[in-house]
Amino acid sequence: MQSGQLPAALERLSAALSTGTSTTVAVGDPAVTLEVTPLEAHHCVGAVMFLLKTADHTVLHTGDFRWELWSQTELLHQQALAGVKVNELYLDNTYCHPKYDLPARALACRETISIIRQHLPDHHILIGVDLLGKEELLAAIAHNLEVQIAVSEDRLKTCHLMGLPSHLFTTNAEATTVRTISRRSAGLKTVARLNRMHPTLCVVPTGWQPAEKARQTEGADSAAGPQLQPQPKADTHKQV
């Protein structure tokens, strides 16, 4: 949430913290010093883990996070974790169930691109997404397929803040055959209605559907409904 969007009472109590930078926070007891360090969570834009340190105790609270190999290397090189012994670890367990045996993010991205490629240029492409997240996936789709993706004004601003190439996105839905829609509206009725006007493929990258169900939709007729592609934002069961 950006500054100015908080209720006034909370605005006075809020403070911006920089990723990888330690900040000392008053806890009401002069004898206790709490050091707070936000760490990149590699989840969605703005997501962080919190490293909390007192004189004799250290806690790492992951929240929703993604521990890819490349981010593990980056994380281990951060000065904030150098020589730190974590006494307590609060681990995100969003997908802590064997049914969430989902592929690595890079593989899931390639599979999604492959499915969309098979349907271009004959189909209109809808990508069902939440209000936040999947921006890097959208950029990869646009780059690899050499198309622009129509997004909302808010998502375009988010993409700009992330430093993603601006030429990959547009807010003009008439300028391209590939666009994002709300994941909640990416249902059978929507796809059926659009297919009556033009062949339409709807892809929903998500980690919330069990992997088996998501993979069953691969290769399905686009008229049958949205294709659920395994694409979790947080660590999967095996990774946890």
Integer tally of domains: 2
CATH class label of the largest domain: Alpha Beta
Low-confidence blocks of residues: 210-223
Helical content stands at 25-40%
Order of helices and strands: HEEEEHEHEHEHEEHEHE
Distance linking N and C termini: 28 Å
The assembly state of the depicted protein chains is single chain
Q: How much strand content do the residues show? A: 15-25%
How many runs of DSSP E, i.e. beta strands? 11
Number of helices: 7
Strand line-up in the sheet with most strands: 1-2-3-4-5
Q: Which structural class do you get from the secondary structure elements?
A: alpha/beta
Report on the structure:
By secondary structure, the protein is an alpha/beta fold. Helices cover 25% and strands 20% of the residues. The chain is built from 7 helices and 11 strands. The protein has helices at 8-11, 69-76, 105-119, 135-145, 153-161, 188-195, 211-216; strands spanning 23-25, 34-40, 48-53, 58-61, 88-90, 124-129, 149-150, 169-170, 178-182, 200-206, 227-230. Strands 1-2-3-4-5 form a 5-stranded mixed β-sheet, with no helix packed on it. Helix 3 crosses helix 4 (135-145). It is elongated and about 70 Å long. Residues 210-223 have low confidence and may be disordered. One of its GO terms (molecular function) is 5'-3' DNA exonuclease activity.
